[in-house]
Amino acid sequence: MKLMDMHCDTISRLLELEEAGKPEELRENSGHLDLEKMKKGGYRSQNFALFVELRRPEDALLTAMKLADLFYRELERNEDTLRLARNVREMEENERAGKMSAFLTIEEGGVCKGSLAALRDFYRLGVRMMTLTWNYENELGFPNTMNEMPGTGLKPAGFAFVEEMERLGMIIDVSHLSDQGFYDVYRCTKKPFVASHSNARALCPHSRNLTDDMLRLLGERGGVAGINFATNFLDPAAVRGKSISRIQDMIAHMKHIANTAGIESVGLGTDYDGIGGSVEIADASGMQRLVSGMEQAGFTASEIEKICWRNVERVYREVLH
Questions:
Q1: Pick from 144, 142, 184, 193: which is nearest to 166 by CA?
Q2: Single Gene Ontology BP term (predicted)?
Q3: Would you say the C-alpha torsion 18, 83, 128, 225 has a positive or negative sign?
Q4: Count of domains in the chain?
Q5: Region at 154 (left for phi over 0; alpha for psi -120 to 50; beta for the rest)
Q6: What's the pLDDT tens digit per position in 114-168?
Q7: Element (H, E) at 278
Q8: What pLDDT is stored for residue 56 in this prediction?
Q9: Among 249, 191, 234, 186, which Cα is nearest to 213's?
Q10: 167: CB partners within 8 A, 6+ apart
């Protein structure tokens, strides 16, 4: 079964290792995801996030540019296996050439420093999806960690960014965004948007997950929620010391989202190289185990295809130019 994964933090991990003097490569490394593991796992495409933690670097924009530079260096090293895709047409061209596709994304809209010019320049660099926040307040809005506070939706710059992202053909990603921010995005957009790596709050009451109402609105808009493999987003027992992400919990979230928002609203957003703890699917090479688990759980072949790649491809086809 082909796979399209909406989120991983592999590029950030590789930059950290490079700057620590312990470099590894995208071709093969000790993390959750590399090209050899992707080939074994049956990947069609992978979204590679430029993730910046705003409070760590002196200059978040410069750090994002360093990450983009590493991404493109790795593309050059591995052009026999992996190519950039900016839309479905390019992904299909890569597939015909026997290559996997890399979509470039940003996790933390604050790297743009509130500048629409910076947003447009990232688009020119190939970025096709962006979360408006990570875990900190920024110029665009507020994160899910501030859900309980009033007035924590999008800021004026956030509304301007959402409008420009729709105009450009860049997918709006509401993972990490506050609940009020989610509803602001829903109210002021027309195209599908995604929660690239978020699960169902009804099953696991973490603020990073989506409520049933949010899921229904996401599905109504034609969007997709990518199942996150982090154990504390899958199982409430994780807060009591459990430390393994199980396939059965991933499937439970798939079923809940499908029953709430429709099967067309479920996708994959593993968060590989961005999550801790043990994962039953230890790395990208084992992703077909998830497919087998879905078959055993009663998903039809058509439903499995939708979750593994068709739903995400549909959103890309509708939004990306």
A1: 193
A2: proteolysis
A3: negative
A4: 1
A5: beta
A6: 999 999 999 999 999 999 999 999 999 999 999 888 899 999 999 999 999 999 9
A7: strand 278-279
A8: 84
A9: 186
A10: none
Residue 100's H or E segment, with its range, is: strand 100-107
**pTM for this one?**
0.97
Distance of CA 274 to the CA centre of its chain: 11
Are 173 and 316 in contact by the 8 Å Cβ rule? The answer is no
Buried-state track 32-49, b at ≥16 Cβ within 10 A, e below 16: bbbbebbeebbbbbbbbb
- CB 81 within 8 Å of CB 99: yes
The C-alpha angle with vertex 301 and arms to 226 and 280, in degrees rounded to 5, equals 50
Measuring CA to CA, which residue among 168, 185, 93, 160 is closest to residue 124?
168
Confidence of residue 52 (pLDDT cuts 50, 70, 90): very high
pLDDT tens digits, one per residue of 302-314: 999 999 999 999 9
Question: Which structural domain range is residue 86 located in?
Answer: 3-319
